[in-house]
Amino acid sequence: MSRLSPAEIEGLLRAAPEWAVVGDAISRTFQFRDFAEAMRFVNQAAAHAERVQHHPDILIRWNRVTLTLSTHDAGGVTHKDVDFAHFAEGLKP
């Protein structure tokens, strides 16, 4: 899988504008009502990551969850990352 250009990333994330490019990755922080809701989101994201064998970095801070996605083998953002970002958008409460 090949690394996407900045213009490709921008175009593909147009439908998910809260995601931002951070170095060689894309990242977004989701906010929930409480810790339990945040953990339900994390568990759904983790199950998806296992299904597609593509694992984000996950930072949990009480009611906030930050996902950071990068395809390390490609040295940056690929379609795998953008696809995961779009999946995560569908998990929002």
Q: How does this structure look, described?
A:
- It contains three helices and four strands.
- It is α+β, with helices and mostly antiparallel strands and 93 residues long.
- The chain has one domain (6-89): Gyrase A, domain 2 (2-Layer Sandwich), CATH 3.30.1360.20.
- A four-stranded antiparallel β-sheet has the order 1-2-4-3, with helices on one face.
- Strand 3 (57-61) and strand 4 form a beta hairpin.
- The model has no long low-confidence stretch (mean pLDDT 95).
Which key features would you list for this structure?
93 residues, alpha+beta, Gyrase A, domain 2, 4-stranded antiparallel β-sheet, 4 strands
Rounded to an integer, what's the Rg over CA atoms? 13 Å
- Average of per-residue pLDDT values: 95
CATH C-level class is Alpha Beta
CATH topology: Gyrase A, domain 2
CATH architecture: 2-Layer Sandwich
Residue fraction in strands: 15-25%
Class inferred from helices and paired strands: alpha+beta
Helix count from the secondary structure assignment? 3
For the termini, the CA-CA separation is 31 Å
Low-confidence stretches: none
Q: Indicate how many domains the architecture comprises.
A: 1
Number of strands: 4
Largest sheet: 4 strands, antiparallel
Helix content: 25-40%
Shape: globular
Say which CATH homologous superfamily is assigned: Transcriptional coactivator/pterin dehydratase
State the strand order across the main sheet.
1-2-4-3
Order of helices and strands: HEEHEEH
